[in-house]
Amino acid sequence: MKKDSQLATAGYEVLPCFMPKDECLRIIEDFDHYFQKKLPEDDTDSYIVSRRTTPNYPYDKNVFQLMNYHHLNGALKDQYDDKILSLFKEQLGLDLSIASYTVQLDLADTASKRPFHTDGFQVNFKLFIYLSDVPQKEGGPYTVIPGSHKKYLLKWRNLLGNFLSGNPSPDDMTDGFSDDKSLSITGDAGTAILSCQALAHKGWQEHSGDRRYMLVVYLRAGEREGEHFNLGREMAINAPMQLYSAK
């Protein structure tokens, strides 16, 4: 792995104007259609996840995800796969593969946002694209603690503390990771964020403003290309949800 790139040293990289705004709007319209009017057909292997279906899980009750959106919009992979994989190859020297393009909606939420956490304890990566403008913290921007992917001992201390306390989210990072060390990444629609998910990260917890839409690209090791992606299937909704008026 390369050691001197922005992504390797800080754990993230920001790329403005990665996706045209008109394309961002089309994806938002697709999400609103499938979320509010007609769920994806079962044979598409696309589904919508809501954490409201898991009463014992306390976080992110206003987060909804259209998983495997690329099965509904095949042009995405044709247009972006090579571009995204080349970026990570350039930054890290790693051969990765793309597991899923997923559309995520965050409604305003100041009560149930998940605290700083990692996505497990293995090295894995995502690329986020803001589909709507996120100009300030009230919009719930992606928030990171730069360089925290290298805080190995502190992360293991959190893992032990979560185990001893019975925390159902073992990769929460609440001990030693605080807002005063963080960076909230604001940006216009189309802004991309390359992210190492071993980084302590979260959506800003005081999300009191507009809905935030983003495209989440899940990446994994190149040798795992083609493996079935079914993250969150157990939380899939079985009927559309009418929670807002689409623009």
Would you kindly provide a written description of the structure presented here, covering whatever features stand out?
- The protein has 247 residues and is of the alpha+beta class.
- It has a single domain (6-235), classed as q2cbj1_9rhob like domain (Jelly Rolls), CATH 2.60.120.
- 21% of the residues lie in helices and 22% in strands.
- It contains four helices and ten strands; from the N terminus they run H-E-H-E-E-H-E-E-E-H-E-E-E-E.
- The strands form two sheets. The protein has a seven-stranded antiparallel β-sheet. Strands 7-6-9 form a three-stranded antiparallel β-sheet, with no helix packed on it.
- It is globular and about 45 Å long.
- It starts with 5 loop residues before the first helix and ends in a 26-residue tail after the last strand.
- The relative contact order is 0.26.
- The mean pLDDT is 95.
Find the count of extended strands (DSSP E, 2+ residues): 10
> Would you state the CATH class?
Mainly Beta
**Widest sheet, order of strands:** 1-8-5-10-4-3-2
**Rg computed from alpha carbons, rounded to a whole number of angstroms:** 17 Å
Mean pLDDT: 95
Portion of residues in beta strands equals 15-25%
User: By CATH's scheme, which homologous superfamily applies?
Assistant: q2cbj1_9rhob like domain
Residue share in helices? 10-25%
Question: N-to-C SSE series?
Answer: HEHEEHEEEHEEEE
Uncertain regions spanning at least 5 consecutive residues:
none
Distance between the termini: 44 Å
CATH architectural grouping: Sandwich
How many helices in DSSP terms?
Answer: 4
Helix- and strand-based class? alpha+beta
The tally of domains stands at 1
